[in-house]
Write a structure and sequence with these properties.
Keywords: ATP-binding, Helicase, Hydrolase, Nucleotide-binding, Nucleus. This is ATP-dependent DNA helicase. It comes from Cudoniella acicularis. GO terms for molecular function: 3'-5' DNA helicase activity; ATP binding; four-way junction helicase activity; hydrolase activity; nucleic acid binding. It catalyses: ATP + H2O = ADP + phosphate + H(+); Couples ATP hydrolysis with the unwinding of duplex DNA by translocating in the 3'-5' direction. There is one protein chain. The protein is α/β, with parallel strands linked by helices. It contains 29 helices and 18 strands. The chain has a seven-stranded parallel β-sheet, sandwiched between helices. The chain is globular and about 80 Å long. The two termini are about 30 Å apart. Bound molecules: adenosine-5'-triphosphate. The site of adenosine-5'-triphosphate has 14 residues, from loops. Adenosine-5'-triphosphate binds next to loops.
């Protein structure tokens, strides 16, 4: 199996490691919030009072700063509520204009303060935006800065100078909007800094807020920590924004942040210009000619979604051989290549982009004429978001869904890929709570290298993050804090020797005495140096990063260790630890079932005997406008014949392949690992065993992995018989 782009945000938590040194050296001296902004003392009725000038100010900022004529959808209602002191949850479709719902209040706060004369200059605080999309937040900040608005991001690509400049703006009370990724909330220095922002956090905006819900299709463990952060920094109000939220997910968001029912603003996702078409076949090969003739008949900017990275290349090549202008796009490509591809797609009007879900977030192109699904999307939420990119100019656009029996397997593989074996989870939790950790006092620190844990316990990075998040949020046992580097190495320039020789500071002495020179690189064990000299490690890290900024050395920190503080007495016995691991595992099993259920819902939509547009709207707690029961422009409405899901014929048990796997794979401690290899699902241990290149890998991909909800799990059970218990 090739790589799946299973995170449409394209974010790697490793990115955040780059900023650790910077955060370490944060001096935390910014002014504390002034007593005058302690609105908490005011009665709530007064706090929520809407100033009569609010809307006038908001509208003039909309026209003057953003050059737009009028508010759209429910922007005006949301902004008015926020300016009145209330919190809100906003469910607008993609491209609906969610950003303005927090950008405008961010600029109006200081204007209202002036009118009300409640705060001094520079005391109006900031709007903090938490968003998982680093590339998108950078684009937004660039656009704001171009409009003369003081906005900045704290992200891994910032130089120390840029970071310090942002800190200066925070201290001076000049900054209006600050953007960061949710992973940053693990950084202690950052949390402290936000608690002490001058003027306070007037508004916390949570983008892609559906990630907070465990019922959602894109749950991200780090999102669970945002609600706690919201309390800790005492933000005055919160706005949660998403393009896809079922009623259950919206409720979850509101409950998590204490948003009242009247704070939920939802607009219809129904789009009358989108023709929702579905076609099915037993075999994939029959679908290619149909795709080619569709694309020939419907020219214009097109996105074709597939599941695997490899499929993007294969299908793009096939399309090119038929004379189409097609390119492939997936998360595994180098960033400059991806940027060039996105630019080209935005620029020209005849390109077909064959892509994984990594393509599309932030693609704001009005005239996309076709969105094709050549594999089954993972959920109705993903489908709705992806087709929502078509026809933003209001002109008729086609959303074609080609479904085939063979793809059902791929979808199952996708859904099952994340669940590790119970043994992996038990071993991981036992490793976190090893004999040393369980003796730690409250506030004691557990340090772990997550990269090694992934390899040692055969767990994908997202799953490992989930285990830690559950230990933190569900079990309240530990709390993530700023990760640290264990190794610092650097190359020196000719000035280095004289500069370091004359540096009499304690940190300078630490570098002088403890850095060891190898052939080209110097190596410094910061922890040892700090312990021996009795100084904080932060000072040494700061010294190194200063030398690096001043181009005296070229610094390369490495070996990230995640650090967790003990917050409650930890389970001490093997049984106690296993109980926690098993509780975590059963939640993971439930999520696997839900992922399969979501894929089923997707299939039911297009094979059902009802209007696609209506079924989709109802999934999101909505309906067709004007009480209509049919849209008139989907396959059901146009044919009134259900699309048949054609299952491939059942496959007889392949004993030869089974025996070959047992022969090729030495492992006998994990049945799920063997089943994964047979099915063709990659994992850190599968890769370490060099299985993906072995002919047995995926040799039983046409078999049932396991029968859902049944004790008869063909492959898994068969392998379990060969595993030592
Ligand atoms: N009231 C308005 N009038 C005109 N244009 C607007 C208005 N509000 C937003 N826009 C424009 O609509 C486009 C989409 O806005 P925005 O990026 O905020 O959407 P979004 O809801 O965040 O979408 P996504 O879910 O894709 O992130 C932007 O180009 C924005 O400038």
């Amino acid at each position: 199996m090739g790589d799946i782009d299973d995170d449409d945000f394209g974010f790697s938590s490793g990115d955040e490691a780059d900023i650790i040194a910077l955060a370490d050296s944060f001096d935390g001296n910014s002014k504390k919030r002034k007593a005058s902004d302690n609105d908490d003392d005011l009665p709530p009725t007064k706090r929520l009072a809407i100033h009569p000038q609010s809307l006038t100010l908001a509208t003039s900022i909309l026209t003057q700063k953003f050059g737009m004529k009028a508010f759209r959808l429910k922007q005006e209602q949301v902004i008015t509520r926020i300016l009145g002191g209330g919190s809100a949850a906003v469910v607008f479709p993609t491209g609906g204009g969610k950003s303005l719902c927090y950008q405008i209040p961010a600029l109006v706060f200081s204007e209202l303060d002036k009118l009300a004369n409640t705060r001094g200059d520079g005391e109006s605080g900031i709007t903090l935006v938490v968003s998982p999309l680093i590339a998108l937040m950078k684009d937004q900040v660039d656009a704001l800065v171009k409009r003369g608005i003081k906005a900045a991001t704290f992200d891994s690509t910032k130089t120390r100078k840029e970071y310090l400049h942002t800190c200066d703006m925070l201290r001076n009370g000049e900054l209006k909007l600050l953007y960061c990724a949710p992973e940053r909330l693990n950084n202690e220095g950052f949390v402290e800094q936000m608690k002490n922002v001058r003027g306070g956090i007037r508004l916390l905006a949570v983008d892609e807020a559906h990630c907070i819900s465990e019922w959602g299709h894109a749950f991200r463990p780090d999102y669970l920590k945002i609600a706690r952060f919201y309390q800790e920094i005492q933000a005055e109000r919160v706005v949660c924004l998403t393009a896809t939220a079922t009623p259950r997910v919206a409720k979850d968001i509101c409950r998590t942040f204490g948003i009242n029912d009247d704070g939920l603003f939802r607009t219809s996702t129904y789009r009358s210009n989108l023709k929702l078409v579905a076609e099915s076949s037993k075999m994939k090969k029959d679908l290619y000619p149909r795709l080619f003739s569709f694309l020939k008949a419907h020219p214009g900017p097109t996105i074709v979604y597939v599941t695997l990275q490899k499929q993007t290349e294969d299908l793009a090549a096939k399309l090119r051989s038929k004379g189409f202008k097609a390119r492939a796009f997936h998360a595994g490509m180098e960033t400059p290549v991806k940027m060039e591809l996105q630019d080209e797609f935005m620029r020209v009007n005849d390109l077909i982009m064959v892509a994984t879900i990594a393509f599309g977030m932030g693609i704001d192109k009005a005239n996309i004429r076709n969105v094709v699904h050549f594999n089954i999307p993972s959920s109705l939420e993903s489908y709705s978001q992806e087709i929502g990119r078509a026809g933003r100019d209001g002109k008729t656009s086609h959303c074609v869904f080609y479904v085939c029996g063979e793809d059902l397997h791929l979808r199952e593989m996708f859904a099952r890929g994340d669940l590790p074996s119970r043994k992996s989870v038990r071993d991981t939790v036992a490793n976190i709570f090893d004999s040393e950790s369980i003796r730690l006092p409250i506030e004691g620190e557990i340090k772990r290298n997550q990269n090694s844990q992934q390899k040692d316990f055969d767990i994908r990075s997202t799953t490992l993050m989930n285990i830690y998040a559950q230990l933190e949020i569900t079990h309240n046992l530990i709390r993530a804090t700023t990760p640290i580097y264990t190794k610092y190495q650097y190359k020196v320039t000719p000035q280095y020797n004289s500069i370091i020789a004359s540096d009499e500071s304690q940190a300078g002495c630490a570098v002088k005495e403890y850095a060891k020179k190898a052939s080209t690189w110097y190596h410094l064990d910061v922890d040892t140096a700090a312990a021996r000299l009795g100084i904080p490690r932060v000072e040494i890290v700061k010294k190194l990063s200063d030398l690096d900024q001043n181009k005296i050395i070229e610094l390369k920190p490495a070996g990230v260790l995640n650090v967790y503080k003990v917050t409650q007495p930890l389970p001490k016995t093997k049984a106690g630890i296993q109980k926690v691991a098993d509780a975590i595992y059963s939640i993971m099993e439930k999520r696997e079932e839900e992922a399969l259920f979501r894929a089923d819902q997707m299939l039911q939509l297009i094979t059902g005997k009802s209007c696609f547009s209506r079924a989709l709207a109802q999934h999101f707690g909505d309906d067709l406008p004007d009480g209509k029961s049919e849209c008139g422009h989907c396959t059901w409405c146009m044919t009134h014949t259900a699309v048949e899901q054609e299952e491939p014929p059942p496959v007889p048990w392949n004993q030869k392949a089974f025996d070959a796997i047992l022969k090729a794979v030495p492992v006998r401690d994990d049945a799920r690992l063997l089943a994964r290899i047979a099915f063709g699902i990659s994992s850190p241990r599968v890769t370490a065993l060099k299985m993906p290149r072995d002919p047995v890998f995926g040799s039983m991909e046409d078999h049932e992995f396991m029968v859902r909800g049944s004790a008869a799990d063909p492959m898994l059970v068969e392998f379990a018989n060969f595993v030592s218990k």
